Amino acid sequence: MTRIHRALISVSDKTGIADFARSLASLGIEILSTGGTATALRAAGIRVTDVSEVTGFPEIMDGRVKTLHPAIHGGLLGRHDQDGPVMARHGIRPIELAVINLYPFEATVARPGCSREDAVENIDIGGPAMIRAAAKNHAFVAVVVDPADYAAVLGELRDAGAGLGEATRRRLARKAFAHTAGYDAAIWRYLEEREGDHTLPGQLPVGLRLQQELRYGENPHQRAALYRFPKPAPGTLLDAQLHQGKPLSFNNLADADAALECAKALPAPACVIVKHANPCGVGLGATLLDGYEKAYATDPESAFGGVIACNAPVDGEFAGAVLGRQFLEVIVAPEFSAAALEAFARKPNVRVLATGRLPDPATPSLRLQQIEGGMLVQDKDVALLDHGQLRVVSKRQPGAQELDDALFAWRVIRFVKSNAIIYCREGATLGIGAGQMSRVMSARIAAWKAAEARLDIRGSAMASDAFFPFRDGIDTAATHGISVVIQPGGSMRDEEVIQAADEHGMAMLFTGVRHFRH
After folding, report:
1. Which of 30, 162, 426, 482 has its CA 20 to 30 A from that of 497?
2. Phi, psi at residue 453, to the nearest 5°?
3. Same-domain check for residues 350 and 388
4. Do 11 and 142 fall into the same domain?
5. In the chain, how many domains are there?
6. Residue 88: how many CB atoms within 10 A of its CB?
7. By three-state DSSP, how is residue 397 classified?
8. CATH code assigned at 298
9. Which of 160, 136, 133, 106 is nearest to 8 (CA)?
């Protein structure tokens, strides 16, 4: 048990600090402080010793240097069982409690118009140094970086006669190192974005922070939580407003993210229905409701219990149509009208999430995927094509509608698990074959799903996320009257595949881009 005699308090986030410091003082603990924190504590009637009185040195360089001094770091790093003589020789008194949080770097750089100079001045130096010193010496020093810990720390201090146990000091030290690691990651991310360096970094500071604990993971026996990056992109689930319903589960979040990412990639208004990480229906329309009707018609059976994402505001008519048609877990959209929220309120178990304005889907970023013992990192797949980037390789040229259908199918297939085949016409998915080991099997399944939904795929576009290794996928499509195929090309049997398209009178487009999704 470490008895606390002196506490150093230096905080940017002053939430609850006056009450906490007052309680420390009532336990006979001397308080050292710096700058604005000292001013705030004195204003609250709390007796404070300035750090400059301890160091014998004033704050200089606009506050850049104030705590970087042996009288402070020696007090934090001194080992009571072996450093006592040297501390006494140099007049260094122990500091057993450090209450520190850092300059608001993330809040600063999030402000519109923040200059690089402002950002740099909000990189804390003394704070992380003191936190790390106190955390390293947690055998003798407790470090508190989160106002949420004040109550528990104070409770233990009162119960233990101003002492803190080893388990508490260890827990606080772990949290302190995570705090400084996250802080450094936020600074790295800002500098990386500003430099526009597109090389993959030699080290990748992630800096994830717990946003919420989840009831469980993919299955009830798995623990799970949602973590966020220091600066998540706008228009994501991380900052979406939950208008109603209980918190989303692990699987809800995964499906909602998949649906939202697909919706972002399409022209508005569009609607996407996702089940188990795969789109089971996607539709564009003159109105959002038109888009939903097309998406739902693709696979009404799979839509049951699915997640819906829209890339346009949801109104009351749309909400009423959806609720009258299907059971759903989650709906996410940029915004909801009052009438829409009133309609959904009649089904309180439906989670209703408003993301705000959606960002440009072509914005580059990195994607992380864990494997055992490491992490796979790649660029986000933002390869969006237009008509001019397609190469016609068949004898027959596609018509204007066929081109539009093919491009729509190509945008959607990016979000279907490999091997993926989809059939589309006039802004609607008609059949989706996902996640098969054989590409021709995906083609067969997509046709079978369309037939199950009583959708005619004759004259529609077929998209394949990767090249056709054999002509069998084209032959299968031809039996169902597919008129145009869009695919990356690049197979050693491309000539055979193109010949098959020509034999069936189909148009074929090569993109030169693959869209595997695992």
Report:
1. 426
2. -85, 5
3. no
4. yes
5. 3
6. 10
7. coil
8. 3.40.140.20
9. 133
| 3-state secondary structure at position 160 | coil
176-228 pLDDT, tens digit each: 999 999 989 888 888 887 776 677 887 888 888 889 999 999 999 999 999 98
In order of 274, 297, 305, 322, 450, the CA distances from 300 in angstroms are 12, 6, 10, 12, 11
For residue 468, give its domain range.
384-510
Which residues are tagged catalytic? 136, 276
**333 with 313: CB under 8 angstroms?**
yes
Q: What is the pLDDT of residues 296-331, one digit of tens each?
A: 999 999 999 999 999 999 999 999 999 999 999 999
Q: Which phi-psi region, left, alpha or beta, contains residue 198 (left: φ > 0; alpha: ψ -120 to 50)? A: alpha
Residues near 421 by Cβ (< 8 Å), separated by ≥ 6? 432, 433, 439, 442, 443, 445, 446, 462, 463, 464, 465, 473
Structure tokens given for 297: 């018609």
Name the phi and psi angles at 94, rounded to 5: -65, 145
Please give the backbone phi and psi of residue 144, each rounded to the nearest 5 degrees, phi first: -120, 120
- Residues 67 and 175 both lie in one domain: yes
Same domain for 398 and 338: no
> At which of 354, 375, 403 does a domain end?
354
| Confidence band of 256 (pLDDT split at 50, 70, 90) | very high
DSSP conformation class of 147: G
**CA–CA dist 55, 115 (Å, integer):** 33
Structure tokens, 199: 């090389």
Are 403 and 448 spatial neighbours (Cβ–Cβ below 8 Å)? no
Q: What residue type is 450 in one-letter code?
A: A
Structure tokens at 200: 């993959």
In sequence order, the 6+-apart residues with CB closer than 8 A to the CB of 350 are 244, 245, 323, 328, 329, 330, 331, 344
Relative orientation angle of helices 150-159 and 166-195, to the nearest 10 degrees:
160
